[in-house]
Amino acid sequence: MIKEGKIGVSEAMFLVVVAISNRVFFTAPAVVVKAVGTSGWYMALVADLTAIVFFCFVYLLLKRFPDMNLIDIFSVCFGKVLGFLFSFLYAGSFVIVCGVLLREFIDVLKVYVFDSTPLSVLAGSVLAVIMAAAFLGLETIARVARMAGFIMLAGLIALMCMAAPQFKLDNIFPVGGYGFGKTLFEGLTRSSAYSEVIVLGIVAGALQGAPHIKKAGFSALVLSGIVLSGILLGVELVFPYYSLQELTSPLYELARIITFGTFFQRMDPIFLFIWIITTTVSSSILFYCAVSSYCKAFKLSDTRPVIIPIAVIVFTFVIQQRDIIVVVDKLIEALRISPVLLFYILPAAALITAVIRKKKGGEQAIGNS
Description:
Elements (H helix, E strand, L loop, with lengths): L8 H13 L6 H9 L3 H25 L5 H9 L1 H33 L6 H18 L1 H26 L16 H10 L9 H4 L7 H29 L2 H4 L5 H8 L1 E2 L3 E2 L2 H30 L6 H17 L3 H11 L3 H19 L6 H6 L1
Antiparallel strand pairs: 1-2
């Protein structure tokens, strides 16, 4: 059993909020607008509501097996072989998601800031911080995530307020975007944008029971939905949708055009500070979940021996990708569906299996498995 310590509701909530909301700093707003047009801001709310429905199954499953995490529950519900397979898939998925996030972050960073810095240097620098966070453990990551969450929210609110003079209401018309049917469909399929809520299932043992998981999970999804929808609305009000979909990082572009008189111009350095902190914390959360899932699947009690090997795998994945076009058009689009199947559908299947097979509780369940 891995000793992950204990974290509170607010810390668990910000683990999820930072991991989900961090995507607004990259290509996500442009990708969403390209898919649905001007209706992107409320498409994010449709996706959020879908994620909340799916999380209900995750919560009910964790409530049925108190003091157990998803990895242990899979072993009880599906048996040792299938349970191990699904747990290993979880570990691999977190590695891929972490790798995609890092590569997207580094590519955008190279576009705007470090254009001549080698990819391997940037990747290695960020991974060094992520490895240090993994060595320090979940409690440290959670506490830093709470601090980073407040910084991120304050920074985003300030950014939107400073950009308000450049809002043009005409930019969000037609309200229906490319059609309400298209918006609804994309909202349902893009609920994977909130799939990082599954982090609570991986570290469930560190929270103090199902009531804490419920509070942290639903609060995080509601807050993340507000953040994503609000940022999408803000950038749509500033940039026409036809130009917005061409921007690599709309938020960075927005920060660059903010001007208040002679002395307050180019707010992008402040934006970079928030961006780098939240991305590093978000990557650390995903990396820790990959390490934790792997160790739980193989019944390892110490995470430290596998941190460096998994970091090498992530580093290899990051530098193997050809360019940002491959990341956005292939990898990120592929991640629209697979997290839904793995992080939402699988817990629902485990819950149904547990009800049918009458599996319930900690010690009894482990004994029957």
